[in-house]
Amino acid sequence: MITTPLRILLVEDNEADVLITRRTIGKLVEKPEIEVVEDLTSCKSKLISFLPDVVISDYNLPTCTGLDVLQLVQEKSPELPVIFLTGTIHDEELAANTILAGASGYILKKDMNNLAEKLRPLLKKVVFKMDAKDEVRERLRQNRIAINQIYDYLDNLKLDNKEQKDNMGKIKRTIRNFEIGDDDDKKT
């Protein structure tokens, strides 16, 4: 059993698959915190406020595709692993393309009977990459949530003139530079 608590964002519209996936994660992870969404708008909101350790997403959703979810995740948190749990990927070329696009893995829904066996190594890989201590990780998470909320606020401002738009662009660049500087500081 994985003893590191994991925050998991499950992007899935099929209630039966949600139940199976939740039950399986509960068997694999000691204290999982799972949030479920079924569209891109809700996914974006949870990426800002919940900031998961991993995203598990269906590939074929009613309002978007898994690649749309992957692209959104990469925009908000490029380091965040995304695992596809899908019935759509039937050919190896499409599966390879999802991995090349940045997905951390995929599991076919036809393998739901063996979901624990398929999901365990992918979640262990997620935990292995989480090398920060819990306290530091939580501080980083809170900072990231604050930054995401600032970005979201700035994106939703109604700007009346070019000078305001230019100033907002400068603020965003400054925040990004600050984030990049923080990442550089963590490496040294």
UniProtKB/TrEMBL annotation:
Coiled coil: none annotated. InterPro entries: Bact_response_regulator (IPR050595), CheY-like_superfamily (IPR011006), Sig_transdc_resp-reg_receiver (IPR001789). The keyword Ligase does not apply. GO terms for biological process: phosphorelay signal transduction system. Residues 7-124 form the Response regulatory domain. The modification 4-aspartylphosphate is found at residue 58. Keywords: Phosphoprotein. This is Response regulator receiver domain-containing protein.
